[in-house]
Amino acid sequence: MASASAPTTLSLLPSSSSSTSTRTRSTPLVHLPSSGLRSAGIRRLGFSASDPIFASHVASKLHSFSGKAVRGVVSMAKKSVGDLTAADLKGKKVFVRADLNVPLDDSQNITDDTRIRAAIPTIKHLIDNGAKVILSSHLGRPKGVTPKFSLAPLVPRLSELLGIQVVKADDCIGPEVAKLVVSLPEGGVLLLENVRFYKEEEKNEPEFAKKLASLADLFVNDAFGTAHRAHASTEGVTKFLKPSVAGFLLQKELDYLVGAVSTPKRPFAAIVGGSKVSSKIGVIESLLEKCDILLLGGGMIFTFYKAQGLSVGSSLVEEDKLGLATSLLEKAKAKGVSLLLPTDVVIADKFAPDANSKIVPASAIPDGWMGLDIGPDSIKTFSDALETTQTVIWNGPMGVFEFDKFAIGTEAIAKKLAELSSKKVTTIIGGGDSVAAVEKVGVAEAMSHISTGGGASLELLEGKELPGVLALDEAIPVTV
């Protein structure tokens, strides 16, 4: 059992000269008795070749996972919009579910257009091939028709990015919408109003899905951010529209989050942070089946510390998860995964941006103080460990990065991953706060891939199947 005077140490790391053609394992860093936690079953997913043009683009970002020649990238075995030719699309009405849930300020101005820009390649492909695009999305969590959640503010930016005037409907179903669809020219785009203005959307009511589907001839789902939900516009419409295929963005998310994690170029490291172990149990267990190095940060580390008999002061601890933490440490040992916990932390006398703070060893957190970030020694050790890798996925901050004083650890990891990207390491930011962190630091463009989905990214990393993906047409298997 680990000493009660110090947390798990960080002395054994894979050598940078380790072979990447086979799975690299170093001696695990934890030596705790197992409490018999049974690992969650990992459901195996099917794969197929992607659209050739798109595959070439993604393959260039993946830096050849095989360690030899660049192979075709993989995706879940679903038909892609790239499989549809001009003959399939010209004159056809295509219902496109995108994720245009962008943040707006009090004056209804878009403050971050990332999701709009991410939707453009699929829409452009469709209009360039003569399709009539019926664009659907949600925005926020409206309770019925709520003007502040209208999609109207998105029209100018969509029009600018597409180079055509996007037409806006005042509803998403009904006779007036149907008239607008009839008048839509080939290569035109009609933006429907927020589908969540109808409660039937999230309830996935068949009649509502049928009304949406009646507007179109075929369906393209490009909304990865909602793919983990079975809603009328993501799953329900597939029962009435054929073919139902994946858009380029959805396909790219699957290529990275499934393909890169399932067949990474090794050594493969995962960085998991966040406030609670309970919210990341599935992710940690799934990654322990696949990674060589697992770095833990954020508030969850104090549950691991206490499980090892350390004093954590007034730091966040999930008392009912102490046994789980011990079991995860033991599972890492059994799997041969180097699980790295911070050796020093930045502590504060209160949870506030102006709190008094100091740096202490992880084994010396005094009563009345709480850990809010990883310390400089841990930043260096984590960075050294990451230097040995070829693939890294990051989900969750290292500390309370919303407070500048306690954002240093998170920002250091973001900068390190940007540096590794420049050295051809595949870096994947797995959604949520990690995305906000790399954007805050200004290194988002450097990463190999940044996921547009928070909850969807988590569920995919946990090995869960996504309803919005399962509902799509199966691809014809192709050897990669």
TrEMBL record:
Its EC number is 2.7.2.3. Its cofactor is Mg(2+). CDD domains: Phosphoglycerate_kinase (cd00318). It is found in: Plastid, Chloroplast. ATP binds at residues 280, 402, 431-434. The keyword Disulfide bond does not apply. Residues 1-28 have a biased composition (Low complexity). (2R)-3-phosphoglycerate binds at residues 115, 196, 229. Keywords: ATP-binding, Calvin cycle, Chloroplast, Kinase, Magnesium, Metal-binding, Nucleotide-binding, Plastid, Transferase, Transit peptide. One of its GO terms (molecular function) is ADP binding. Pathway: Carbohydrate biosynthesis; Calvin cycle. The keyword RNA-binding does not apply. Residues 1-32 are annotated as: Disordered. Substrate binds at residues 99-101, 138-141. It catalyses: (2R)-3-phosphoglycerate + ATP = (2R)-3-phospho-glyceroyl phosphate + ADP. Belongs to the phosphoglycerate kinase family. Monomer. This is Phosphoglycerate kinase. It comes from Trapa natans.
